[in-house]
Specification:
Distance between the termini: 22 Å
Number of domains: 2
CATH topology of the largest domain: Rossmann fold
CATH superfamily of the largest domain: NAD(P)-binding Rossmann-like Domain
Structural class: alpha/beta
Number of strands: 11
Largest sheet: 7 strands, parallel
CATH architecture of the largest domain: 3-Layer(aba) Sandwich
Order of helices and strands: EHHHEHHHEHEHHEHEHEHHHEEEHEHH
Bound molecules: nicotinamide-adenine-dinucleotide
Helix content: 25-40%
Oligomer: single chain
Strand content: 15-25%
Number of helices: 17
């Protein structure tokens, strides 16, 4: 049955993107976006730019590009700014990150050099292994939030932006859980004024964005909007939030392979994952407290896919271990190994070995683009609070209280595409179509 189309405000004018953290992923994203706009390459890896969506029955052959189907902002209308603790412009930062080669960066050097980070809100207690000079020095977290607000409003005005989206692509912060100060907006605002040490820098950015009605995306695994105080603010200001932790590399592989094993009712005795990486992200994750945030995010994936409570003979005793090793010679060219001990008919053991020589920032950059465009769309469609339909992009998807997160990439894709159809008043696709009815008289 045809749905009623949701009212979506038009994507007029410029869309500002403000990014805390302008390191490997951000510079790769900006360099790629500019290269795409200049016609040097295609937006490979981006579902909004290259993906098609089937509409209606299979025999109608209607498969438009998603970017033609949805009223998304045009990528030429994106304007990018952000904050970092290092003051280098995006060209120098990209050269330091060593993800892309000089011959890939030089054709867009003018664009990259034109973007320099604003002063960051930073606290070494939350990110231990790095420090830099480009930081705000206001006395309280409240004053720092006001300074961020000024940055955003100035950026918006100078660039003539109609709307803004904020996406956290800064370092992973130390593991911390919601405490007293996170329980209500009132307590949180008091905490900002009183410099409460339980408020992380990422939460100062998130608070500022939500106060201004700006959608907030968390690309890292630590807690930011996922606490009662900031959800209260998102609700009050009708703002969309999404997170956490971009689904790239090893976890992407896990959420592709694990649903397949489960679909065929194959058991898993153990899954050992280890990584070597040598970029700044690896250096930050070398600190046990930042690693804890990442570990929790990476470990949760298999538990919810395998549902050991429903399939105890297959998954109850699965041993799951994740390791990340900082190994500088590798730079951004991470290597992720997985050893999967599976078992089948008559309990016979088998093994799967995966050696993924991936490039993390190359996998993450298109997700950044898709998330910006889809969050802006969601906000224009009046979708407030947690955007579960965007779980497809995250390792540790935010979810409504009382529900478990959906990790299976293929269920996530169905949900993503059906939400797109729903927004545009198209029939949802359940794969229970004409063939099924033909079986019966
Ligand atoms: N690359 C991936 O595939 C991937 C996947 C999932 C999540 N992530 C997460 O994305 C984030 C970015 O990854 P990256 O490889 O670009 O790391 P990176 O270290 O190259 O860049 C992060 C930048 O954030 C800056 N920073 C740290 N704290 C800040 C603050 N409070 N305000 C502003 N800037 C700050 C750092 O100076 C650094 O330049 C990390 O948290 C990482 O764990 C990456």
């Amino acid at each position: 049955m045809q749905q009623k189309k949701v009212t979506i405000a038009p994507a007029k004018g410029k869309l500002g993107v403000v990014i805390p953290g302008m390191g490997a992923i951000t510079t790769t994203f900006i360099a790629g976006l500019e290269s795409i706009l200049r016609g040097y390459c295609a937006p490979i890896g981006s579902i909004t730019q290259m993906g098609h969506i089937r509409l209606g029955r299979r025999d109608t052959g209607s498969n438009p590009l998603i970017k033609d189907f949805l009223p998304l902002a045009n990528i030429k209308d994106l304007v990018i700014g952000g904050w970092d603790i290092f003051p280098e412009n995006m060209y120098d930062a990209a050269m330091n990150a060593k993800v892309l080669r000089k011959d890939q960066l030089d054709p867009v050097k003018d664009k990259l050099e034109s973007i320099t980070p604003m002063k960051a809100v930073f606290d070494n207690r939350y990110v231990k292994n790095i420090s830099g000079p480009n930081v705000k020095t206001e006395k309280t977290l409240w004053d720092k939030s006001q300074a961020l607000k000024d940055d955003i409003l100035r950026f918006k005005q100078e660039n003539g932006c109609d709307r803004i989206v904020m996406i956290w692509i800064a370092s992973t912060e130390a593991w911390h859980e919601a405490s007293e100060v996170h329980q209500s907006l009132e307590a949180f605002e008091e905490g900002l004024r009183g410099n409460n040490p339980s408020i992380a820098p990422s939460q100062v950015y998130a608070y500022t964005a939500l106060s201004l009605g700006i959608p907030y995306i968390n690309g890292a695994p630590h807690m930011s909007t996922d606490c009662p105080a900031l959800m209260e603010l998102a609700e009050r200001n009708s703002v969309a939030v999404a997170g956490k932790d971009f689904k790239t590399g090893q976890t992407l592989m896990k959420t592709i392979i694990a649903p397949g094993l489960k679909a065929r009712m194959l058991g898993v005795a153990g899954w050992f994952s280890t990584n070597i990486l040598g970029n700044r992200d690896g250096e930050v994750l070398d600190d046990p407290e930042s690693f804890k945030s990442k570990e929790v995010s990476k470990l949760s994936v298999l538990d919810t896919i395998f549902q050991a409570d429903l399939y105890p003979e297959l998954y109850k005793n699965m041993f799951h271990k994740v390791r990340i090793n900082y190994y500088p010679p590798r730079g951004d060219d991470k290597e992720g190994w997985d050893n999967i001990d599976i078992f089948g008919w008559m309990n016979m053991p088998m093994q799967i070995k995966i050696d993924f020589l991936c490039r993390d920032s190359i996998l993450a950059a298109p997700l950044v683009l898709d998330l910006i465009l889809l969050m802006d769309l969601g906000q224009r469609a009046g979708m407030k609070g947690i955007q579960e339909w965007l779980s497809f992009f995250f390792k540790s998807p935010l979810h409504a209280p009382g529900l478990y997160p959906e990790h299976d990439l293929f269920i996530q894709l169905t949900k993503l595409k059906n939400t797109m159809r729903y927004l545009m008043g198209e029939e949802l696709i359940t794969h229970l179509g004409i063939d099924y009815y033909n079986y019966f008289d």
